[in-house]
Write a structure and sequence with these properties.
This protein is of the alpha+beta class. The chain has one domain: Nuclear Transport Factor 2, Chain: A. Helix content is about 30%, strand content about 40%. A six-stranded mixed β-sheet has the order 2-1-6-5-4-3.
Length: about 140
Amino acid sequence: MSEAETRSLIERYFAAFNASDNEGMLACLSEDVAHDINEGGREIGKDKFRWFLGMMARHYREELSDIVVMTGQGGGRAAAEFTVRGTYLSTAEGLPPATGQTYSLPAGIFFEIDDGLISRVTTYYNLKDWSAQVEGE
């Protein structure tokens, strides 16, 4: 896959995210996608990713902005840096109580691409920063 094709794939993934189009996001992923959850474990497969998206939609409404996509030579890897702007809708297990708080924080995702689809999604953001924002510190 060329670097331009990889960039286009990642841009489609983010456009689907911002449109709350879970099926559009899933269409960008390989069946055995590896999903490294921020400060969590690794889940394998589109079905687990679909479940994760549903869980996220219950707890958060988010939009990504200021997106910068970087592609590695040959298009097999990519990274993106962006700002997450969101609303905490309902309390997630192990996190502070949700009361509709808003937040804004920098984040990044690393991607691997195989056979024209995203085969790894590794997300990073500062959970301590997020917690401080929703706790009103």
